[in-house]
TrEMBL record:
This is DENN domain-containing protein 5B. SUPFAM superfamilies: Lipase/lipooxygenase domain (PLAT/LH2 domain), RUN domain-like. Residues 22-569 form the UDENN domain. It holds the Pfam family DENN. It is found in: Membrane. One of its GO terms (molecular function) is guanyl-nucleotide exchange factor activity. GO terms for cellular component: membrane. Residues 432-441 have a biased composition (Basic and acidic residues). Residues 740-911, 1092-1250 form the RUN domain. Residues 403-419 have a biased composition (Polar residues). Residues 403-451, 1031-1061 are annotated as: Disordered. The lineage of its organism: Eukaryota, Metazoa, Ecdysozoa, Arthropoda, Hexapoda. InterPro entries: cDENN_dom, dDENN_dom, DEN5A/B, DENN_C, PLAT/LH2_dom, PLAT/LH2_dom_sf, PLAT_RAB6IP1, Run_dom.
Length: 1260
């Protein structure tokens, strides 16, 4: 068994070597000798060596005395107040060991050392008086040690103390030097180690009085050789030195949790971390670690650094921090911050000396000041608000009062209805650094006179036998137990989040086919986790954070551990994590757990706390008490002495039975084994099950599956139908739109289908039963039709037609009809198999379900799949759900109801998939092409293509591009080269060759100079065609060789057009603005169109305003042939420019315009947009420029503001009649008021719409 303590260490001043400056300190020559750091040394360590934990003297000494040796006088008041801190040492093989150090000051009685300090003091004063020191100080302040990885003003300087404290007079002052005693352990039992060191220091014989206590060697011998760590699930009662030599030994309990039920041991109090930082900073720090940012902690207290570092890394469980981890980094070693890798370091430095500027990847946490500086573009942890509120609930439960929490926690209740936490109001906390500094005053420092006086009083009271109050006697033990309970509750909350997020992670692990050695050699080039499929199941708002986390080494390490478990390498962290996921699935319906959008709070903390309480109240074992091991008489000393080396280096003979059971355990029950009768009862009940009972249980399960199918499809339909459908339904509040996320509902449907296909399997052939069935069907189909050239019989019947179509290559390029797309189950399976970013069977099954759902063929494909009775009988038992005919028909009927709504669950989920797009350009006259070089740019909800060159003499071609999402616009143009550059285009058809979606982009305009409005580039707005429209379009193309589109389904067209009355125009414009405002305030999942369509499509804002400006011209002939609306806007711009010139020259009186400054701003913004369009949009025609100007005016909030100045200019009086919108006061007032709501919207235009024109520098 492992020992509790491996080494006992004494570090301090080696009197034989004298004073030696600390080589790690860079400022020894610039401060007083009392403020300098000197080199310490390991004076002794017992035993000499432990084979399992080699002793590293330099690391132990540096971390035991992180400031080096420090000298003080009696004026510093440090003689009676030791300070405790822990530290960590990472060996070359990656293993860690923990150290615990107690630093105290003892008087220097060596005359040579005192004389040397006096000499250094005299030299320092001489240098100051000669002025040499001033120049050195100035150079230090100007240059200063700096960290290259941090900004240049990140400086480490010193704050000089008062002259009285820094001066040493050998004739008047007593000199004290720091010293450390410590222990080195492999497991961090902080409470026991601290109690041992503090009490051992108190047991040093300092008075000439009869002592009944043991020698120091006796306590050290006991802790080194007679105290062993308990086995998992057990606890051990140990005896430690008393707080006073006159008292009996103090007891403490070492306990060891038992995996996979409990979390690993953590003895550092998380309560202190929350008290120092608060909940918000802890969660932010936790998030930065998950995203593998560089994390720098800062404190002037080593123990604070250690508690925060160990505490925050423990919250990562089951993940571990795989990068550089240095909890305590002395300020003199700040150059280690130059490491260009993720790290977690604790900088031990004074708070007044550090200034950190913004760093893109650095998270800086000042523990002492409760301040954090976060990196740029930090993601948000899933369900962060509810997560923080659950933590606050636990803090309140354990009476952990964070300073200023009542004042800084937000009074708004943001608790989700799905979070079943205590009913008292829970609010978020916003940190106030200044309030924390003012109100959270730290207690008296260890070296202060107040703490010394309290210590003297406590020692006197103990010797008199008077019992102290609860805070001194029982409170340490009680607070330690409360800390362990609080640690357990908080860690369970954090683990619960990971369990819910990664509940199905095992389904997406790609296990290798080769051996362990081959996998080790090639794992860097292999993909071990199907990230795309996993992310497709997650809520959309969490995907960005999870995507970054899946790319981290932290996550990859867990997946590597999971794969290594194939070869028997068991990791306790993974065992615990998998066990929690297993219990979660059992609690919510078995292996195929259904996801929920609710925030699920932790429910395991109470159960695991029972194990901790049992071990602490009823220890399983008791260690032998300390006994006297030396015969030497105790000598009185004022220093901590070196111990008997020979005695402590001897390996004692300890019998295996020398650790008796504790008496408390004899009265208790063992929690490690279940009652003996439980397994016998369970096995006996299994034998009593009759075939009738089995059939009844199976039938109940079949009915439950059918009921779940009905509930799921209904909920998905209600979510798509919107709030009206939900209100009319009889479902409860859980079906409200606010609680429904489409991607989560689809993922839940995928989970349900896996449950259906897993029921009654004869033999499981893969992780996904559905995908295995699809592959078996595909294999059988290919075997029966191995001579066919196409995937389905339906497609093979088109072979003759397609061969004739392909035989005429030239004619094929000029055809404007789309070849029929296969619609078979096998075609969709083949498309999914071709996806390079989906690797696992479960991922492919989910991609196939999403694709079939988007194509509205899910029910049809399942009917085809289940129609093969021979394959069904070969794979499923007679009792399987899929072989129950009536239930199967109802199941297919419920899935068929999903065809009533449109899903884009495949298009929106796989953005990196390469999609083939079929593009057909339909000219006004059949077969005509352009001699110019034609290009096309497609834009969608996910991305935009670069310019796609249209092959010469081609109307029908295919291009492959990364998934663009739902197509929104198409920009088509040419370079106007050749003799026959002019081209009349009726419309353009684009088809997604995987989903089968067909988009129509109406045009009905010319491309070319000298015709129409002279445009060589046009923006076309697309609409997704329904099945009925596709059929009508197909018939139209086959019956009409011209294939003309409807008269108004095109881009902006020149007059003539039907003349509309003002009331009709007002009605059209009101409806259009109303649609835009409604669209803006809807959630993205409820938007059934795009802003571009609302602005530029049929009956869009551009079309309505075009009718507004065309009403009331004095001469219709003026705008026939050569003149367009754009000519009017250009003339208005010229008028505005002349007004601006007069404004600058001072010829214009400010009293002519009531809101003169606003009018001038409108002139400038108007002229800026016109100028920008003139320079950047030379290929656009006049109608295209009008369209662009209207869109930019909406974005710049100029539209309703420019109407007044336009109506007042002379150009309008010349070109418009009095009944027009710009000259009729009533119509103008209506126009400005109806467009006013658009001013409240923040409009973001697509790049294809804005032409890359930026906003003007001055906004109105």
């Amino acid at each position: 068994m492992n020992k509790f303590v491996d080494y006992f260490v004494i570090c301090g001043l080696d009197y034989s070597s004298g004073l030696e400056p600390d080589k790690y300190s860079e400022d020894n020559l610039h401060v007083s000798p009392l403020e300098r750091s000197y080199k310490g040394k390991v004076l002794a360590h017992y035993p000499e060596n432990v084979p399992t934990n080699p002793f590293d003297a330099s690391a132990v000494c540096m971390l035991s005395l992180p400031c080096g040796l420090k000298f003080r006088t009696q004026k510093h008041s440090v003689t009676l107040a030791p300070s405790f801190h822990s530290f960590l040492i990472t060996r070359e093989d990656g293993k860690r060991c923990y150290g615990f150090s107690l630093i105290f000051y003892e008087e220097v009685r060596n005359r040579d050392i005192c004389t040397a300090m006096q000499t250094l003091q005299a030299m320092y004063i001489t240098e100051l008086s000669s002025g040499m020191k001033t120049r050195v100080l100035q150079n230090t302040q100007n240059q200063g040690p700096q960290s290259r990885s941090l900004p240049r003003h990140f400086k480490l300087t010193h704050n000089p103390n008062g002259a009285a404290l820094t001066y040493y007079d050998i004739s008047k002052d007593k000199l004290f030097v720091s010293k450390s005693i410590g222990v080195i352990c492999q497991v961090a039992h902080v409470h026991a180690a601290k109690t041992f060191l503090e009490n051992l220091f108190r047991c040093v014989p300092r008075r000439a009085c009869p002592s009944t206590g043991l020698s120091l060697e006796s306590y050290v011998f006991n802790i080194l050789y007679e105290v062993e760590l308990p086995e998992p699930g057990k606890s051990l009662l140990v005896h430690l030195p008393p707080s006073d030599p006159q008292l009996p030994p103090t007891s403490a309990i070492l306990q060891n949790p038992c995996p996979p039920v409990e979390l690993p041991h953590l003895d550092f109090p998380l309560r202190l971390m929350f008290l120092w930082l608060g909940v918000d900073i802890v969660v932010q720090l936790f998030t930065c670690l998950l995203l593998e940012n560089q994390v720098l902690l800062r404190s002037a207290d080593c123990q604070r650094l250690m508690v925060v570092a160990e505490g925050i890394t423990s919250l990562l469980f089951p993940f571990t921090w795989p990068h550089v981890y240095v909890p305590i980094l002395p300020a003199s070693l700040h150059h280690f911050l130059d490491a260009p890798v993720p790290f977690l370091m604790g900088l031990y430095a004074s708070s007044e000396n550090i200034k950190v500027a913004s760093e893109a990847s650095l998270c800086y946490v000042d523990i002492d000041k409760c301040k954090v500086q976060l990196p740029e573009e930090m993601g948000t942890f899933p369900h962060q608000e509810d997560f923080i509120l659950e933590i606050w609930s636990t803090l309140d439960k354990y009476n952990v009062h964070v300073p200023n929490s009542e004042n800084t926690r937000n009074t708004q209740d943001v608790m989700s209805k799905s979070c079943t936490l205590p009913g008292r109001p829970q609010n978020r906390r916003k940190l106030s650094i200044h309030d924390t500094l003012d109100n959270d005053r730290p207690p008296s420092p260890p070296g202060s006179a107040r703490s010394e006086a309290l210590q003297r009083i406590a020692d006197i009271v103990r010797r008199t036998g008077v019992a102290l109050d609860q805070n001194e006697t029982t409170q340490p033990t009680d607070s330690y137990i409360e800390d362990l309970r609080f640690n357990n509750s908080i860690r369970e909350i954090f683990l619960n989040r990971f369990v819910h997020i990664f509940q199905s992670y095992e389904n997406f692990v790609i296990f290798p086919n080769q051996g362990k050695e081959d996998w080790f050699n090639n794992r860097d080039s292999m993909q071990n986790f199907d990230k795309a499929s996993f992310l497709s199941d997650q809520p959309e708002q969490d995907r960005l954070f999870l995507w970054r986390f899946l790319e981290s080494q932290t996550f990859a390490s867990l997946i590597d551990t999971k794969i290594l478990s194939m070869w028997g390498e068991v990791d306790n962290n993974l065992l615990i994590f998998d066990n929690r996921i297993k219990h979660l699935k059992q609690r919510y319906g078995g292996e195929n757990l259904m996801r929920s959008l609710r925030y699920e709070p932790c429910v395991n903390a109470h159960d695991t706390q029972k194990y901790i309480d049992r071990r602490l109240t009823n220890p399983d074992f008791e260690s032998p008490p300390p006994r006297e091991v030396t015969n030497n008489k105790t000598t009185i000393t004022r220093q901590f002495p070196l111990l008997d080396k020979e005695l402590l280096n001897k390996t004692p003979v300890v019998n295996k039975g020398s650790i008796p059971r504790a008496s408390a355990f004899k009265r208790g029950l063992t929690f490690s084994k279940p009652p003996t009768g439980l397994s016998d009862k369970k096995s006996g009940s299994g034998q009593d099950l009759s075939p009738a009972l089995i059939a009844q249980a199976n039938w109940t399960f079949v009915e439950k599956l059918l009921k779940d199918c009905k509930v799921r499809t209904k909920r998905m339909l209600l979510a798509k139908l919107g709030a009206e459908g939900v209100t009319l339904s009889s479902s409860n509040a859980l079906d409200s739109c606010g609680a429904v996320e489409e991607s989560t509902l689809v993922a839940s449907l995928c989970d349900f289908l896996e449950r259906v296909w897993s029921h009654g399997l004869q033999r499981k052939r893969g992780k996904s039963a559905l995908w295995s069935h699809l592959l078996a069907y595909q294999e059988k189909f290919q075997h029966l039709n191995k001579n066919d050239n196409y995937l389905t019989p339906d497609v093979s019947r088109l072979a003759s037609n397609l061969e004739n179509w392909m035989s005429q290559v030239t004619d094929n390029k000029l055809r404007t009809d789309l070849p029929e797309l296969p619609s078979s189950l096998q075609f969709d399976v083949a498309n999914v198999q071709a996806m390079s970013d989906v690797k696992t069977g479960i991922g492919m099954a989910r991609a196939w379900v999403r694709l079939a759902l988007e194509k509205k063929q899910l029910s049809k494909h399942f009917r085809t799949l289940l129609s093969d009775q021979n394959l069904l009988r070969a794979q499923y038992k007679r009792s399987a759900f899929l072989r129950c005919e009536e239930e199967r028909e109802q199941f297919l009927y419920h899935l068929l109801s999903l065809n009533a709504v449109d899903y884009f669950c495949f298009t929106s989920t796989y953005p990196t998939t390469v999609i083939p797009y079929r593009i057909v350009i339909v000219p006004n006259k059949k077969g005509t092409t352009s001699s110019a070089n034609v290009w096309i740019v497609l834009s969608g909800t996910l991305s935009e293509t670069s310019r796609i060159a249209v092959p010469k003499v081609t109307l029908n071609f295919e291009c492959k591009y990364q998934n663009l999402g739902v197509l929104t616009t198409l920009r088509i143009g040419h370079d106007n080269s050749g003799l026959y550059a002019k081209w009349m285009i009726d419309y353009v058809i684009v088809r997604n060759e995987i989903t089968g979606h067909i988009y129509k982009f109406p045009c009905g305009r010319w491309l070319g100079r000298g015709v129409d409005d002279g445009s060589t580039e046009r923006l076309l707005v697309g609409t997704l065609m329904s099945k009925k429209e596709e059929m009508e379009e197909s018939v139209s193309r086959s019956c009409n060789s011209l294939g003309r589109s409807t008269p108004r389904n095109r881009s902006p067209a020149p007059p003539p057009r039907p003349e509309l009355k003002p009331s009709q125009i007002q009605h059209m414009l009101g409806d259009c603005v109303n649609k835009i405002v409604k669209w803006h305030y809807r959630r993205s999942s409820e938007r059934h169109t795009t802003l571009t369509a609302l602005l530029c499509s049929e009956n869009g804002l551009v079309f309505c305003l075009e009718n507004v400006f065309l009403l009331g011209f004095k001469s219709a002939r003026l705008f026939m042939g050569k003149h367009y609306l754009w000519d009017y806007f250009v003339r208005v711009k010229e008028h505005f420019e002349s007004e601006l010139v007069e404004e600058v020259s001072g010829n214009r009186s400010a009293s002519l315009e009531r809101n003169h400054q606003e009018t001038v701003a409108v002139w400038r913004c108007y002229c800026h947009l016109i100028d920008e369009m003139t320079h950047t949009s030379k290929t656009l025609g006049k109608d295209g420029k009008f369209q662009l100007f209207i869109c930019l005016s909406v974005r710049e909030h100029l539209l309703h503001r420019m109407l007044g100045p336009m109506a007042a200019c002379k150009v309008t009086l010349e070109m418009y009649e009095e009944n027009s919108f710009l000259r009729n006061r009533g119509l103008l007032t209506f126009l400005r008021q109806i467009l006013l709501p658009l001013d409240e919207l923040d409009v973001v235009l697509e790049k294809s719409v804005s032409h890359g024109i930026s906003s003007p520098s001055q906004h109105v």
